[in-house]
Amino acid sequence: MCLEHGIGLVTFVPRTCAIRQELEVWGRQHPALPLLVEKPGRTKDEEPRRWHGHSVLRRVEVESSAGRVTQEEGRFVVVHSSQLAQQHAQTYVRAQEKEAEAVADHVRQVHAQWFACWPDAEAAIAAYAGQGPGRRGRRPRPWRYHTLRYSIVAASRRTRRTRRGRPAKTEPPSTESGYGLMVEVDALPNAEVDNGWTVLATTVRAERCTDAEILEA
């Protein structure tokens, strides 16, 4: 509608859109993007907040008012914000610390499990890795900020005696063989180059409005 009626539109592109993911990768491959806006820090010790960015043109699918889907050339402003990068980094650290508590509880539960046969242990690993059916039809969600690696170990444990009475001193303790799981946990590093990116889509051409003006808008 904006293209048909010549309306100037500036909007964020959602993170889930493939075009945004593509353009963020493009931006990381061009570290020397022009400086669009610079503002002083909120305190004397805070570094200036800087927004670097550049316009790129990409052909995308556009649906007209008549319902026709065509390929149109769209303008996208790829922006990296130092302020957003700092916020993203802090958010990542807090989220990882919170998840670490849940991971520790999960590891304790896994170590306490006992499996009578190897296939049962393998099935448990598949479920933990998000490959199982999950509960109520929903697939298990793998950990977001940690990598967990599971391995099967042969083990034995003591069992109750089947006969009553005090055992003889020479009688060996009753045991059974089975399998347990070991878990290795690694915290996923926060790639700083991935932080602070955003993508704006606009119907305004560069001849009418510069990248800095689009960002300000």
Describe the secondary structure blueprint for this structure.
Elements: H1 2-5, E1 10-12, H2 18-28, E2 35-39, E3 49-63, E4 69-81, H3 82-111, H4 118-128, E5 146-158, E6 175-187, E7 197-202, H5 211-216
Quick structural overview:
The chain is α+β, with helices and mostly antiparallel strands and 217 residues long.
> How are the strands ordered across the major sheet?
1-7-4-3-2
- Structural category: alpha+beta
The 3D shape can be described as elongated
Number of domains: 2
Strands, count: 7
Mean pLDDT: 87
SSE topology string:
HEHEEEHHEEEH
Give the CA-CA distance, first to last residue.
20 Å
* Beta strand %: 25-35%
Number of helices: 5
Low-confidence stretches: none
Largest sheet: 5 strands, antiparallel
Q: Helical amount among residues, as a percent range?
A: 25-40%
Radius of gyration: 28 Å
What would you say this structure looks like, in words?
There is one protein chain. The strands form two sheets. This protein has a five-stranded antiparallel beta sheet. A two-stranded antiparallel sheet has the order 5-6. It starts with a helix and ends with a helix. The mean pLDDT is 87. The chain contains five helices and seven strands, in the order αβαβββααβββα. The chain has 217 residues and is α+β, with helices and mostly antiparallel strands. It is elongated, with a radius of gyration of 28 Å. It is 29% helix and 31% strand. A hairpin with a 5-residue loop joins strand 3 and strand 4.
Which terms summarize this structure?
five-stranded antiparallel sheet, alpha+beta, 31% strand, 29% helix, 7 strands, 217 residues, two-stranded antiparallel ribbon, 5 helices
